[in-house]
Design goal:
This protein has 341 residues and is mostly helical. It is built from 13 helices and no strands. The two termini are 18 Å apart. This is AI-2E family transporter.
């Protein structure tokens, strides 16, 4: 049996320097709270790249092509910003209020104590007051983190806006004739291209998975349950949470499933069990989709992504969980290109 990997030339010092610089930048983005800017820039850059071929086929004049790509980038930036404000407005409204959802979950858990097994009740708060005391204690122990979060929220949104603009500018710049690059610049551009490719494969694939998962969940919550006379509260919020949480591979599905099962207790334990069974089926479907869509894109299994997310969570917290799939896809791309994995 012959080796399927062709022997590669040893890496040049420029490639080694580019790997070190890229790795350092990617890791520094997390403690510097610039991950949002990176993801926003990559999103605009990739969306523009998907639509640019249509312009290139229809427009031959370089100046007209430049103007068209500029307008396209501006429209994409506007659409992304509008989508962000739309989500914020929805979750602040009565139909999608997260605070209302959390309060409803607390009420459901308290009212369901009498109908739940004893071993489950032992691990639940005694009443709403106990739950509130627990939440207050958690808030006090994390006061510093919450203050930092509040102060950083506006700055983080500004970083996202800057990232959107940078992504649009880079897409615009690539339409222009490119001069010859020197060795280190060429190696860095190759690393950036691999990172953008990893982002496209992971994020767009996960968006498809989340959309499919949300569609099945919406059919269950808004169509199937009402056919049997079951109308759960805050259905729109549950559907929105399912899509947003579903953008995180594996763990996002667990978050949305927990919320749906708890809300199902508002009707009856039987409804909660039915929801749990249905969501387990959907969860298995998501594993299949991860293997077929995400796994086929980067040749990685679900447990690999989960392990990467656990490691990044331990090192960087929630931003690490978000970045882990993209970083892992980029790392595996680099290793595969050298025939190492």
């Amino acid at each position: 049996m012959t080796n399927q990997y062709q022997p590669l030339h040893p890496p040049t010092r420029y490639e080694i320097a580019a790997w070190i610089i890229t790795g350092a930048v990617l890791l520094l983005l997390l403690p510097l709270h610039l991950l949002g800017a990176l993801l926003a820039g990559l999103l605009v850059h990739q969306l523009t790249h998907l639509l640019v071929p249509l312009i290139r086929r229809r427009i031959t004049d370089d100046r007209a092509k430049l103007v068209s790509v500029g307008l396209l980038s501006a429209l994409i930036v506007g659409a992304v910003v509008g989508g962000i404000f739309g989500l914020i407005a929805f979750f602040r409204s009565d139909a999608g209020s997260l605070s209302t959802l959390l309060g409803k979950m607390a009420e459901i858990l308290e009212s369901s104590r009498a109908s739940l097994p004893h071993w489950v009740v032992e691990h639940m708060p005694e009443n709403t007051d106990a739950l509130q005391k627990g939440m207050v204690g958690w808030l006090r122990s994390h006061t510093g983190e919450l203050q930092i979060f509040g102060k950083e929220a506006a700055r983080g949104f500004a970083h996202i806006l800057v990232g959107l603009v940078i992504g649009a500018m880079l897409a615009l710049y690539e339409v222009q004739p490119i001069a010859a690059y020197r060795p280190l610049a060429r190696a860095l551009i190759e690393r950036a291209a691999r990172l953008a490719e990893a982002f496209r494969r992971i994020v767009f694939a996960q968006m498809r998975i989340s959309a499919i998962n949300t569609a099945f969940t919406a059919l269950y919550l808004a169509v199937l349950l009402p056919l049997f006379g079951v109308h759960l509260p805050l259905t729109k919020t549950l559907i929105a949470v399912t899509f947003i949480a579903g953008l995180l591979p594996v763990i996002g599905n667990l978050i949305s499933n927990t919320v749906i099962v708890v809300v199902s207790l508002a009707h009856s334990p039987q409804t909660a069990i039915a929801s749990l069974v249905f969501l387990i089926v959907i969860h298995k479907l998501e594993y299949f989709l991860n293997a077929r869509i995400v796994g086929s894109q980067i040749q990685a299994r679900a447990w690999e992504l989960l392990l990467a997310m656990l490691a990044m969570d331990a090192a960087f917290g929630l931003p690490g969980v978000v970045a882990a799939p993209i970083y892992y896809a980029y790392l595996k791309n680099e290793l595969s290109s050298r025939g190492l994995v």
